[in-house]
């Protein structure tokens, strides 16, 4: 008699999860469309600035890095749908590193802030390396457990 209750509870939980998934999907699609429009706007503004000779190298680089930042957000949203409604953590590190690089290029005057940005990039890069090593190790363990082999842990 306990099995029908468990199945019923799982069914209700799955229905609730599906209902809550719809607003998330709609919002993420809206964010993707919004960032796509912003990319087009920033790109056309950069082209117009170039042709009207209002060009400043720092401004153009800042606009290019903003475009990269928006593209990474769109790529993260795309991968959310491809990877069965899961955001890959590495994309948040990519977005953070790109934004810190943008700040370094746009505002190189303040050396204290510059040092903090560089330390931030170093921390994010190290965290990304640890994440990649961990996922490589987990894939290796998963592959070996499927083959029923016992191996030693190696770094």
Describe this structure as you would to a colleague.
There is one protein chain. The chain has 155 residues and is mainly alpha-helical. It is built from four helices and no strands. Helix 1 (2-51) runs antiparallel to helix 2 (57-82), helix 2 (57-82) runs antiparallel to helix 3 and helix 3 (89-106) packs antiparallel against helix 4. It has one domain (2-146). Helices cover 84% and strands 0% of the residues. The N and C termini lie far apart (50 Å). The relative contact order is 0.07.
Ordered list of secondary-structure elements with their pairings:
Layout (H helix, E strand, L loop, with lengths): L1 H50 L5 H26 L6 H18 L4 H36 L9
Helix pairs in contact: 1-2, 2-3, 3-4
Q: How would you state the average pLDDT, rounded?
A: 81
Radius of gyration: 22 Å
Biggest sheet character: none
**Low-confidence sequence ranges:** 149-155
**What order do the helices and strands follow?**
HHHH
The helix count comes to: 4
Number of strands: 0
Helix proportion range: over 70%
Shape, per Cα inertia axes: flat
Number of domains: 1
- Overall structural class, as computed from helix and strand content, comes to mainly alpha
